[in-house]
Amino acid sequence: MTEHLVATNRRARHEYHVEESVEAGLALTGTEVKALRAGRVTLGEAYARVERGEVWLHHLHIPPYAAGNIFNHEPLRRRKLLLHRSQIRRLAGKAEQKGYTLIPLRLYFARGVAKVELALARGKKLYDKRAAIGQREARRQVERALKRPAAARKGET
Q1: Cα-Cα-Cα-Cα dihedral of 141, 144, 146, 147, to 10°?
Q2: What are the backbone dihedrals phi and psi of residue 22, each rounded to the nearest 5 degrees, phi first?
Q3: Which of 61, 69, 102, 157 has the most crowded CB, counting CB atoms within 10 A?
Q4: Could you report the per-residue pLDDT of 120-129, keeping only the tens digit for each?
Q5: What are the tens digits of pLDDT across the range 96-149?
């Protein structure tokens, strides 16, 4: 399976606890697809919402295609996500619970079709973020200590 990664939401895993993820198709216009293939997209502020039995992606910024004409797309328009009805019902039920939201993790092309990995996530508190940073720093220190030669480590203690 060939995948061409267009964009990732790097802040998502720092800002949210990701519970589960699902792959969804994107309903796009021609100039949007061309802009995506050029790698021009911003996922940072994007989120999804279930409205009247359909899932819509809001605040996904795809800038206008440079070689587009008067039929170029609107950069911040909401875009429909293509999911099975059972997936929509399951996500809608879980997203309505307090604290849960739907966020895109990454946008890519799979077999020539635009896809988005949508995650059901719960926002992290400030102390959760601090704990994650502390764990990451501790892991880095251990890796640094293991990389140093054994002779240098003996002289420390």
Answers
A1: 170
A2: -140, 145
A3: 102
A4: 888 777 777 7
A5: 877 788 899 889 988 888 899 988 888 777 777 788 888 888 999 988 888 877
Q: The tokens of 108 are what?
A: 């890519």
Q: Take residue 94 and report the two structure tokens written for it.
A: 């879980």
d(CA 33, CA 28): 7
**Of all residues in the chain, what percent are helix, strand and coil, respectively (each to 5)?**
30, 35, 35
Residue 119: closest CA among 52, 42, 20: 20
Show the tokens assigned to 111.
Answer: 């077999």
Query: Could you tell me the two tokens for 34?
Result: 């061309």
Separation of alpha carbons 152 and 20, rounded Å: 44
| Prediction pTM value | 0.70
Q: Are 102 and 91 in contact (CB under 8 A)?
A: yes
Residue 128 CA to residue 147 CA, distance in Å, equals: 29
The pLDDT tens digits for 15-50 are 787 888 889 898 888 788 888 888 778 888 888 888
How far is Cα 100 from Cα 119, in angstroms, rounded to an integer? Answer: 10
